[in-house]
Amino acid sequence: MSILVIAEHNSEELHASTLNTVTAASQIGGDVHVLVAGSGSEAVANAAAQISGVGKVLHADAEHYKDGVSVEVCDLVVGLAGDYGHILAGSTTSGKDLMPRVAALLDSSQISEVIAVESADTFKRPIYAGNAIATVQSADEKKVLTIRSTGFDAAEEGGSAEVAAIDAAAVNGSTTVEGRELTVSERPDLGAADVVVSGGRGVGSAENFSIIEALADKLGAAVGASRAAVDAGYMPNDYQVGQTGKVVAPNLYVAVGISGAIQHLAGMKDSKVIVAINKDEEAPIFQVADYGLVADLFEAVPELVAAL
Amino acid sequence: MKILVPVKRVIDAYVSIRVKSDGSGVDTENVKMSLNPFCEIALEEAIRLKEAGTASEVVLVSVGSADIDTVIRSGLAMGADRAIRVDADNDVEPLAIAKILKHVVETEEAGLVITGKQSIDGDNNQTGQMLAALLGWPQATFASEVELDGSNAKVTREIDGGLETIALSLPAVVTTDLRLNEPRYPTLPNIMKAKKKPLDVIELAATGVDVAKRVTTLNVSPPEERSAGIIVGSVEELVEKLRNEAKVI
Ligand SMILES: Cc1cc2nc3c(=O)[nH]c(=O)nc-3n(C[C@H](O)[C@H](O)[C@H](O)COP(=O)(O)OP(=O)(O)OC[C@H]3O[C@@H](n4cnc5c(N)ncnc54)[C@H](O)[C@@H]3O)c2cc1C
Ligand SMILES: Nc1ncnc2c1ncn2[C@@H]1O[C@H](COP(=O)(O)O)[C@@H](O)[C@H]1O
Question: Beta partners for A32?
Fold first, then answer.
């Protein structure tokens, strides 16, 4: 049976996580279709058609898909589900919002944050903040999965799938988006960046985060933060890395003034190279760091910026 | 309006878990158990809504064996009015839990359900959304601010790009994110009072839900160990290592 991938996008651009989800779908094996539900979203449908491995793009364009509201998209996906054995989306906040709803209506147990495909019905996923990896087998007729981007390479461009316009589902209307406060940044996207520089409570204030940002800019990096730094208001919520924030696996992760709680490690310990700068030599972050520097960040980070 | 708060007992967030050597799961013997942190946030929000006069009653509900009664009492000590435990195993899957909760929501005629966004053991992040689907209700996941206004709610959500504010009609399911509130600690008098609050036990059969597993755990293994690297003596040495050894800059 075919596999349906729900594209993540803002009606203008395809989100990078969709490329990783397509790779997971290809590993399951079968014809991969991508659903683009949006409003004025032709460019997204065309971009999806160019992903290598995609056999067909289903494009539903309607006003009520403009904001990607789950209750709306859910009915569309459930209506299409008859043709598919697997339905996949990224483990992004929108995938996590949508997919359990879809699964429940299909009477299927959803499997969250898949990091490896063992076979068409067997998957690996982290549990307990990544301190254990479970291999699980689904007996459901339709498998509904969310895919953790860091577990799969991004699919390449090079496809030329057909784009088929499909009808929108009826309007649900119970939910409307009134506004968004989105982080606008010139820096790379945290979830997909090659280099991430994160700051923790040790940074001390929102103003002091300029030290972290200066290092990030020198390295062409995205900026991240610990929960403590977000809770204290140093950085917005979408910078949080960890069990209950974003999961990243860049080539280089620099943790500055972060102690290394298990919940933080859950979001970054699959990074290729980890650097920790902390003034406490006992900080647990040093147990996972490839290179540790025991130093006051207010001296070490500016010195590092100057040396790069 | 009655608010239903589903809660789960989990291994405490600050315990280092141990994977059993036979690959069957995680050791839960003699480890500290607590209310799932996101459920505490859900409960706190419901209690505040009652204190503000918006809600009439806060009912805590949990699916599990008698082992979980201690954490249910801790939720009552925070300020829930009463509790319901649906007697079942402690490893029922989110879909079946959502079906059981649907039964409780309907018999209790709740007007709002607040769940945690995620249980920190299974890291599923599913139950609230599934419950909303089964009830045919709208959902507001990952809430960092909740305002109720008659038959509508306005909820600010923590999303990947920042924050999003949605308006939705009630009844609805809200799932909590970390920054919705800071849960209170139960006071001693409230811990005493909680011992006398009603805790009703419902038999699983009464809900009519089939909890047979759909997903079998074949194996649980520890993640790949990451060994500690080296401590460098200076910024200069760090730069040298990153350039010439790790080759990442
Ligand atoms: C349910 C739940 C979910 C959670 N989810 C997450 C999550 O997703 N992500 C996350 O990060 N956390 C999460 N946490 C929180 C986590 O447990 C820790 O509390 C948090 O990660 C600590 O952040 P921190 O390391 O910045 O702060 P701290 O632990 O306070 O560490 C600050 C560090 O800065 C160092 N420092 C201070 N001053 C300096 C200086 N001048 N120079 C150098 N170093 C300095 C200190 O030595 C210390 O090691 C969660 C917790 C719970 C209960
Ligand atoms: N056994 C349970 N009993 C009652 N509520 C639960 C149970 N398991 C999960 N929940 C609720 O669903 C939320 C999300 O859990 P999960 O989908 O497992 O990540 C939790 O924070 C609880 O509010």
Answer: A3, A54
Segment B169-225, tens digit of pLDDT:
999 999 999 999 999 999 999 999 999 999 999 999 999 999 999 999 999 999 998
- A103 alpha carbon, closest ligand: 2
Report how many helices (DSSP H) and strands (DSSP E) chain A contains, helices first: 8, 16
What's the Cα-to-Cα distance from B174 to each of A97, A98, B123, B145, B170, rounded to whole Å? 11, 14, 17, 10, 10
CA–CA separation, A178 vs B156, rounded Å? 10
Residue B188 phi/psi, 5° resolution?
Answer: -60, -50
CB A92 within 8 A of CB A69: no
- A103–B120 CB contact, under 8 Å: no
What per-residue confidence (pLDDT) applies to B228?
87
One-letter identity of residue A199: G
Most distant CA pair in chain A, distance: 60
Neighbouring residues of A100: CB distance < 8 A, sequence distance ≥ 6: A110, A144, B94, B125, B126, B127, B128, B129, B130, B133
Distance between CA atoms of residues B232 and A293, nearest Å: 5
Distance from CA of B198 to the nearest CA of A (A): 31
Q: What pLDDT, in 10s, does the model give residues A175-218?
A: 999 999 999 999 999 999 999 999 999 999 999 999 999 999 99
Q: By three-state DSSP, how is residue B145 classified?
A: strand
Give CA separation, A132 vs A31, A126, A127, A235, A240, in Å: 32, 6, 5, 30, 22
User: ipTM of the predicted structure?
Assistant: 0.97
Residues A80, A166: Cα–Cα separation, whole Å: 10
Tell me how long chain B is. 249
3-state SS, residue A202: helix
Contact at CB, B166 and A175, closer than 8 angstroms: yes
Q: Give this prediction's pTM.
A: 0.98
A41-77 residue pLDDT tens: 999 999 999 999 999 999 999 999 999 999 999 999 9
Whole-angstrom distance, CA of residue B88 vs CA of residue A210? 52
Please give the number of the atom of ligand 2 that sits closest to the Cα of B92: 1
